[in-house]
């Protein structure tokens, strides 16, 4: 049974940092692209960042480029998202997801496994 679980969220002041972790089990972790998505209240879910299988190519949403860093440890089956210089508009529920579908340069297209999500709140 595949399980995906996020941790590390919480409340932080603007300008601060948080590191999210995602632990995946029951799958061949290094064969999956892994991504972080977020959904703020009243908004649609958006892709924040994705890291491919193999070479570990990364992509970021324009809104987080230069502030967030995605990484993965294939030995421990853990995905990370280091979030620096946080802004109130980063407040959202953050989800970890696993994908094997590559479409038009998007490694994280149509993820098949999702975590339950974890709240990140940035106060001004």
Features:
single chain, 55% strand, four-stranded antiparallel sheet, 124 residues, 0% helix, seven-stranded mixed sheet, 13 strands, mainly beta
Kindly state the number of beta strands: 13
Helix content: under 10%
| Biggest sheet statistics | 7 strands, mixed
Beta-strand content bin: over 45%
Oligomeric organization of the protein chains:
single chain
Distance between the termini: 40 Å
Radius of gyration: 14 Å
Dominant shape: globular
- What structural class is derived from the secondary structure elements? mainly beta
Q: Helix-strand pattern, N to C?
A: EEEEEEEEEEEEE
What does this protein look like?
- The protein has no helices and 13 strands.
- The chain is mainly beta and 124 residues long.
- The strands form three sheets. Strands 2, 4, 5, 6, 9, 12 and 13 form a seven-stranded mixed β-sheet that branches. A four-stranded antiparallel β-sheet has the order 1-3-8-7, with no helix packed on it.
- A hairpin with a 4-residue loop joins strand 7 and strand 8.
- The relative contact order is 0.31.
- The model has no long low-confidence stretch (mean pLDDT 96).
Helices and strands, with pairings:
Layout (H helix, E strand, L loop, with lengths): L2 E5 L2 E4 L4 E8 L7 E7 L6 E6 L6 E3 L7 E6 L4 E6 L8 E8 L1 E3 L2 E4 L3 E2 L3 E6 L1
Parallel strand pairs: 2-13
Antiparallel strand pairs: 1-3, 3-8, 4-5, 4-9, 5-6, 7-8, 9-12, 9-13, 10-11
